[in-house]
Amino acid sequence: MNKLLFQVDDRPPLITTTLLAAQHMLAALGGIIAVPLVVGAVLKLPADQIVALINAALLGSGIVTIIQCKGVGPIGIRLPCVMGTSFAFVGAAISIGLEHGVPGILGSSLAGSVVMIIGSCFMPQIRKLFPHAVTAVVVTMIGLSLVPVAIDWAAGGKGSGAHYGDPINLGIALFVLVTVIALVQYGKGIFSAAAVVLGMFVGYLVCVAMGLVDFSSVQKAAAFSLPQPFAHGMTFPISGIVAMGVAYVVTMVETTGTFMALGSATNTKMRGKTLARGVLCDGVGSACVAMLGSPPVSTFAQNVGVISLTGVASRHVVALTGVMLALAGLFPVLGAMVVTIPQPVLGGAGLMMFAMIIAAGVQMLSKVEHSKRTGIIIAVSIGCGLAVSVRPELLAKLPAFVHEIFGSGISTAAIVAVTLNLILPERPVEASDDDEEDVPQPMLVKKLEAA
């Protein structure tokens, strides 16, 4: 069991809650904003449409995060779970958008969400496909898949060109990493719990002093912006709905793995009904954000690392994160302010958070029953997951639907682990001579008399 500073239903003091919620927001914000930016750039959308997509994504992510944490009837897992736009949908969104534009993306997202909503009804059965060995593999793979993201941030970001890996970028990231480690190890109370946000704040101040922060986006951002549902319109191309449906299936596998990791981090037993509430929220939430004008949302794995690092598992903290995200969507100037945080600052904190997920996965793997069968499941599934993570071009010449399903290292590892767990036979344990020696003497006498 993990030692938690705050349990799932605890309510920390307001100032503490605000700081803790802010660090969850900082961990998730880059991912939420990145998806609309990537899709908008590829489709060559006007700047105002990209801004509208970002605002809708922030607002939608915030609202669904609140529902996921607090729960509304049968919807919501009621755990500290941050929701945001997912890269699992980027490939499908771009292919649909190139042919049918943004209305096709949003219509396909709305219609495809039915796949996840229906899938939530079968989560008790799906849960049986995730025994401890499979869950441990997925948790480990989540961390392994996220670490390269933190490395890119630390180096200055993928789009930094010639400045990628500059010593100044690596130095800032290292400074933030050391600061976070010091606060976690030696800090007391709030200084330990809020180590991520405090470390990033110190790193941000250093960057401001060095003149590395660009405030131009803050000056251009609107102070307030109301959402405009259905502003882009909607169309429902059959090919787009099928593509999004496949993406939702893949996301459901990833989300199940993330929920299992979340259960481990929060000391919560993940039952089928619990998973069903969470996946249902993913599906219903994606349908709602499509109407707001945002790409689909899913559970963010990186925030599990925040919980593992800080020991703060309060769902009320993360519900406040949802409020902050929603406000960032309504007040774009707030989101623009957060976007000014340099990538190396995010990288230093992210490396620590994501590595903690790997550590949690390794701890789970250490508790798996050691046998040739489980060894094969662990080795092959993690190997396949790493293969598509470090060499994504491996799938470039395969059909598009194969890339959709196996494009993520997390989904690949999960699918391979579940498949091997189903097809590899359980081998009965055979008694050895050593076992016979451990039998008490009176029992041996009875065995000999019976013979």
From TrEMBL:
Pfam families: Xan_ur_permease. It is found in: Cell membrane. InterPro entries: NCS2, UacT-like, Xan_ur_permease. The keyword ATP-binding does not apply. One of its GO terms (cellular component) is plasma membrane. Residues 431-451 are annotated as: Disordered. It is a multi-pass membrane protein. Signal peptide: none annotated. Keywords: Cell membrane, Membrane, Transmembrane, Transmembrane helix, Transport. One of its GO terms (molecular function) is xanthine transmembrane transporter activity. It comes from the Bacteria. The chain crosses the membrane at residues 21-43, 49-67, 79-98, 104-122, 134-155, 167-184, 191-213, 233-253, 317-339, 345-362, 374-390, 405-424. Belongs to the nucleobase:cation symporter-2 (NCS2) (TC 2.A.40) family. PANTHER family: PURINE PERMEASE C1399.01C-RELATED. This is Purine permease.
